[in-house]
Write a structure and sequence with these properties.
Number of domains: 4
Distance between the termini: 10 Å
Helix content: 40-55%
Pfam families: Cation_ATPase, PhoLip_ATPase_C, PhoLip_ATPase_N
Membrane topology: Multi-pass membrane protein
Strand order of the largest sheet: 8-29-28-27-9-23-26-25-24
Largest sheet: 9 strands, mixed
Binding site for Mg(2+): 355, 357, 778, 782
Biased composition (Polar residues): 1067-1078
Transmembrane segments: 91-109, 239-261, 281-307, 835-856, 868-888, 918-937, 957-975, 987-1011, 1031-1051
Strand content: 5-15%
Number of helices: 43
Length: 1180
């Protein structure tokens, strides 16, 4: 096979946007081909891709700066400095510096690891090899070293990592075919033509190359990487400020008490304590006491909280990575949590923004069923004549009779093959039509190995079906089409192609067979084809229409097929008219359309095809389940409106039983405003216009009391808006009404949208709705949307890794989103909320004992506990049980989490941890601290030992309170734990054992002999805990602390059970029976929409094919038909301009953004490429 190559110029690596005139923005670019010295004068960006955040030298300062932007870290740094002042510190400095350094180190290691993988990915792209023309010689050069103005040689199936301009091609007329799968998920080929002045240069090019690196339009469209924080993080920052204010208030209260006490009582002891030189007045004593209590009481917000939160998030991330039910074995792709900071946010998602191609669909079209002459093929029946479902185990038809079959093609109804073998005329004519009526380009890579390059996947599926049933499309020239029909080569003379467009919604070809007969073959939307049928087809038309309804009800994309025998004289006369119309300067398109319709009248119906636009497995079920969880799913796609609607019906997002589907397609601001207002009035009625989603209403109250949401659930609406209408709707004057209408609809589909518009829609919801957003996509055009949303999910599919690299979570199939949110997300949110409630309770109970003791110790900043207990309480004694609860707790198991999606609702309403919950758990902690202090204090006032001596020393009192505290918080975590594992038992009982072991060790003779100054209280624990009265005090304290909680929870569960309580009771009742997985039946589309392929198909390449400009010139002709030049119509040399003009709105969303954002026409630009590995080029 001849070598295929392209000469490309690299003129730019950036988005040239003429619509915005920002100061200093580049409006034009001067480039000389193959002249680096000249081009370097303009300081154009190099081609180095950089998505990493740090460098080796900037990591430490930048990372520390980011970490100390957290209020808590800065707070503990200030405390550390205060603890170094001996006049005010009653605690050692190591109680703060050890956990602070630990937190900073763990976070820095995590950030460094994440950035290392970014560097690794960047390096992989930057070091790819390219062929660059340097000083007249082709040299291998890394893509990162390519410069603006360089000339690059590209060969077949090579990736492009720059914005380039096509100069020349080995193909005729400077054509090339490109695949943008990594950019927009589309696998169909797009054609581009070289500049006229350079297209004939061939292999002797010594000209051009243009935009690099971070200036590429794709990189600019990707947006900046944002630091994402969860709503719990933001709430915790607020709560830390409140706690800090509460700490200041306690410090002021105790300092005032100290001033008063020193004024009235303490002054008499200054001389004995030698304080005269230190304290000049009681006010100064109160000032020093204030800072002392700030240090002592700082554990109301212990830094161990942040260490524990990071550990929990890391653990939850590993659970996602290890989940085998989210592992896609076909591609060996596990789920991956690419960030550890957003796991609990997965349990609070309210809006999902999804791409279509490659995310909901596989972008694979499969010939599924057909109707031929009133008989359907494609279903499988058992021995009793009952229809059976087709599964992977269903045996496939044997195509071994066909040596050129496509082994990837599967069909299960053997009766169609039998009809082919029996040479039934209409069945053969059906597949002959499919093999002839198309614009597919064949490529034979080796003998018998055919590859079809199709304008759309639908066309490829139809031609492949014909190939397997014995009608193999082998080759084409501008004048002929060669088929391999049932083992014999047959060449047809191609006389005309009547191509698809947005108005015709059909395609026809006129051919002459070897017998000299003229045939017209047509395929298109059934509503169009049926109007063109001969009256004799009426009965067959009704039968075929019923079959089409069945196909459409299953979500299949349908086309009607028809043919016509043409009279020679009539055709000659028609060709003369066609020649005249094609050269007309006025109303050319209308004249051609009328002529096409004239010859297409009186068709004979053959049947219909049904193609399955294969959704990813489980998509309808996943969408249904997420909808039951009150998650709104918006589809943002660059596809045409009809294609997007068809997928909406296939996914069951759109249904015929919906009350109304609103289509917003206005071209002006006033038109869009009128359509949106009409839609809002239809939903709410004129009297409900006062409603606005922008009202400052509490989320819980809004959902609970506003009947609009009840109406929306009962009356289901859908909103579909086009890209040009969306551009107006996103303006400041209309964005609020757009959001109102969209939020009242059950389904929202935005079609023909650019990557920037996707991000704007997400930003609109983020800005006006207090809701967590999630964006999911698979292509580079989804990157900006993924980065803008609170949570970004990348699908690691066929379209490259751009979305994955920019995402927070990634997996291989859309259906895993259900498990990510309803299981991992809900559990993470539940665990994190329980963890925080318990942690704040525990630390308030632990810390406020010092506050109560201050009133009885002269406000002297004396601590109740031993210093070592203060140091070890959060790090050793109580850290592991709460971590076990935060890692392993489950309110209900995964089966019930998926079976009852409404269990997800509390996370959306922030019910499990909010300001009210915080006040509740801190109030419980305050009450517990009060009981912990005053019950032992009251008991010790008159308590005596067994031998009659008093238990009045401070250390015995401290041991009693400390032991009561450890036991009380351990009982509390037992009450808070819903799901006990061996780890939970080990950590709870082990922590208690460790507490007593350390307590006795620190009061033992042995450690006193080693560190006499650090552990002077020998035997205190033994002498205290061997008294029955002490254990009775501990028991009484624990019971008083926990019994009110037990009673309140019992009454609440019994009288006002939540949905979770009910499901948990159901789970406990059926625990001995293994609950089965939720078995959602496959959701089938029940829609009357048909022929979505024909409605969605863009302007075809028929004119290009018949012009011969995409064909190589062969020395031998493949046909010897006389009259090859019979009135044939050739297009003008400006065919590409006319084609692009006719395509109009049918250009892809990425192409639309090419022309609007960059100001570069399709004639002079190759589509923008991807962030890392970009488009694959095909030459034919």
């Amino acid at each position: 096979m001849a070598q295929r190559w392209l000469w490309m110029l690299v003129p730019w690596r950036g988005g040239w946007n003429l619509r915005s005139k920002a100061p200093g923005q580049e409006e034009e670019r001067h480039v000389r081909a193959n002249d680096r010295d000249y081009n370097e004068r303009f300081s154009y960006a190099d081609n180095h891709i950089k998505t990493a955040k740090y460098t080796f030298y900037t990591f430490l300062p930048v990372n520390l700066f980011e970490q100390f932007q957290r209020f808590a870290n800065a707070y503990f740094l200030v405390l550390l400095i205060l603890q170094l002042i001996p006049e005010i510190s009653s605690l050692s400095w190591f109680t703060t510096i050890v956990p602070l350094v630990l937190v900073l180190t763990i976070t820095a290691v995590k950030d460094a690891t994440d950035d290392y993988f970014r560097h690794k990915s960047d390096q992989q792209v930057n070091t790819r090899q390219s062929q660059v023309l340097i000083k007249g010689k082709i040299q291998n050069e890394k893509w990162m070293n390519v410069r603006v103005g360089d000339i690059i040689k590209l060969e077949n199936n090579q990736f492009v990592a720059a914005d380039v301009l096509l100069l020349s091609s080995s193909e005729p007329y400077g054509l090339c075919y490109i695949e943008t799968a990594e950019l927009d998920g589309e696998t169909n080929l797009k054609v581009r033509q070289a500049l006229t002045v350079t297209s004939d240069l061939g292999a002797d090019v010594s000209k051009l190359a243009e935009f690099n690196g971070l200036q590429t339009k794709l990189m600019q469209n990707c947006g900046r990487t944002k630091f994402k924080r969860t709503s719990i993080d933001r709430l915790m920052n607020t709560l830390v400020l409140w706690i800090f204010g509460f700490l200041i208030c306690m410090g002021i209260t105790l300092s005032i008490g100290n001033t008063i006490w020193e004024q009235r009582v303490g002054r008499d002891f200054w001389a004995y304590l030698l304080w005269d030189k230190l304290l000049s007045s009681p006010v100064f004593s109160g000032f020093l006491t204030f800072w002392s209590y700030i240090i002592i009481l700082n554990t109301v917000v212990p830094i161990s909280l942040y260490v524990s939160v990071e550990v929990l998030r890391l653990g939850h991330s590993y659970f996602i990575n290890w989940d085998r039910k989210m592992y896609y074995s076909r591609k060996d792709t596990p789920a991956e949590a690419r960030t550890t900071t957003l796991n609990e946010e997965l349990g609070q998602v309210e809006f999902i923004f999804s791409d279509k191609t490659g995310t909901l669909t596989q972008n694979i079209m499969v010939f599924s069923k057909c109707s031929i002459n009133g008989k359907t093929y494609g279903d499988v029946y058992d021995d009793f004549g009952h229809k059976v479902d087709i599964t992977e185990k269903t045996p496939c038809v044997d195509f071994s009779f066909n040596p050129l079959m496509d082994r990837k093609f599967h069909f299960h109804d053997s009766s169609l093959v039998e009809a082919i073998k029996l040479e039934e005329p209409l069945v053969q004519e059906f597949f002959r039509l499919l093999a002839l009526c198309h614009t597919v380009m064949p490529e034979e890579r080796s003998e018998g190995e055919l590859v079809y390059q199709a304008q759309s996947p639908d066309e490829g599926a139809l031609v492949t079906a014909a190939r397997n049933f014995g009608f193999v499309f082998r080759a084409r020239t501008p004048e002929t089409i060669t088929l391999y029909e049932m083992g014999q080569f047959v060449t047809y003379q191609l006389l005309a192609i009547l191509d698809f467009n947005n108005v015709r919604k059909r395609m026809s070809v006129i051919v002459r067979n070897p017998e000299g007969q003229l045939k017209l073959y047509s395929k298109g939307a059934d509503t169009i084809i049926f109007d063109l049928l001969d009256q004799s087809n009426e009965e067959l038309m009704y039968t075929t229409s019923e079959h089409l309804n069945e196909f459409a009800g299953e979500g299949l994309r349908t086309l009607a097929l028809a043919y016509k025998d043409l009279d020679e004289d009539m055709f000659d006369e028609w060709m003369k008219k066609l020649l005249f119309a094609s050269t007309s300067l006025n109303n050319r398109e209308e004249s051609l359309g009328a002529l096409y319709e004239e010859i297409e009248e009186g068709l004979m119906l053959l049947g219909a095809t049904a193609i399955e636009d294969k959704l990813q497995e489980g998509v309808p079920e996943t969408i249904s389940c997420l909808t039951l969880a009150n998650i709104k799913i918006w589809v943002l796609t660059g596809d045409k409106l009809e294609t997007a609607m068809n997928i909406g019906y296939s996914c069951n997002m759109l249904r015929d039983d919906m009350n109304e589907v609103f289509i917003i397609s206005g071209h002006t601001l006033l038109e869009v405003q009128r359509e949106l207002k009409n839609a809002k009035e239809r939903i709410m009625g004129p009297s409900r216009d006062r409603f606005s989603s922008g009202q400052d209403v509490g989320k819980t109250d809004m959902y609970a009391s506003d009947s609009v949401f009840e109406e929306t659930i009962i009356a289901e609406y859908a909103l579909i808006i086009n890209g040009h209408s969306l551009a107006h709707a996103l303006e400041a004057d209309l964005e609020q009404i757009l959001l109102d209408v969209a939020c009242l609809c059950k389904t929202v589909i935005c079609c023909r949208v650019t990557p920037l518009q996707k991000a704007q829609v997400v930003e609109l919801v983020k800005r006006h709705k207090r809701a967590v957003t999630l964006a999911i996509g698979d292509g580079a055009n989804d990157v900006s949307m993924i980065k803008t949303a609170h949570i970004g999910v990348g699908i690691s599919g066929q379209e490259g890794m751009q979305a994955v690299l920019a995402s927070d979570y990634s997996f291989a199939q859309f259906r895993y989103l259900q498990r990510l949110l309803l299981v991992h997300g809900r559990w993470s949110y539940h665990r994190m909320c329980n963890f925080l409630c318990y942690f704040f309770y525990k630390n308030f109970a632990f810390t406020l004992v010092h506050f109560w003791y201050g009133f009885l110790c002269g406000f002297s900043a004396q601590t109740v506990y031993d210093q070592w207990f203060i140091t070890l309480f959060n790090i050793v004694y109580t850290s592991l049980p709460v971590l076990a609860m935060g890692l392993f707790d489950q309110d209900v198991n995964e089966q019930y989490s998926l079976r009852y999606p409404n269990l997800y609702r509390p996370g959306q309403l922030n019910l499990l941890f909010n300001k009210r919950k915080f006040f509740t758990c801190t109030l419980q902690g305050v009450c517990t601290s009060f009981v912990l202090f005053f019950i032992p204090y009251g008991a010790f006032l008159s308590a005596v030992r067994d031998d009659g001596s008093h238990i009045t020393d401070h250390q015995s009192f401290a041991v009693t309170i400390a032991t009561s505290l450890v036991i009380a918080v351990s009982v509390q975590i037992g009450l808070d734990t819903n799901y006990w594992t061996a780890v939970n038992h080990f950590f709870v009982w082990g922590s208690l054992a460790v507490y007593f072991a350390i307590l006795f060790a620190m009061n033992s003779d042995g450690i006193f002999r080693i560190f006499p100054s650090q552990f002077p209280f020998v035997g205190t624990a033994r002498n205290t805990l061997n008294q029955k009265s002490v254990w009775l005090v501990i028991l009484l304290t624990t019971v008083v602390c926990t019994m009110p909680v037990v009673a309140m929870r019992f009454l609440k569960t019994d009288l006002h059970p939540t949905q979770t309580d009910k499901v948990r009771l159901l789970q406990q009742a059926t625990r001995r029976q293994s609950p089965q997985e939720q078995n959602l039946r496959r959701v089938r589309r029940t829609s009357s929409r048909r022929s979505a392929y024909a409605f969605a198909h863009q302007q075809g390449y028929g004119e290009l094919i018949t012009s011969g400009k995409n064909m190589k010139v062969h020395t031998s002709s493949t046909s010897a038909f006389p009259g090859n030049s019979l009135g044939r119509t050739h297009s003008s040399s400006s065919w590409i301009e006319s084609m692009l003009k006719k395509r109009g709105d049918s250009n892809s969303a990425v192409e639309a953004e090419e022309t609007t954002d960059s100001g570069i026409t399709d004639q002079t630009r190759v589509d923008v490429l991807s962030e890392h590995s970009l488009e694959t080029l095909y030459t034919n």
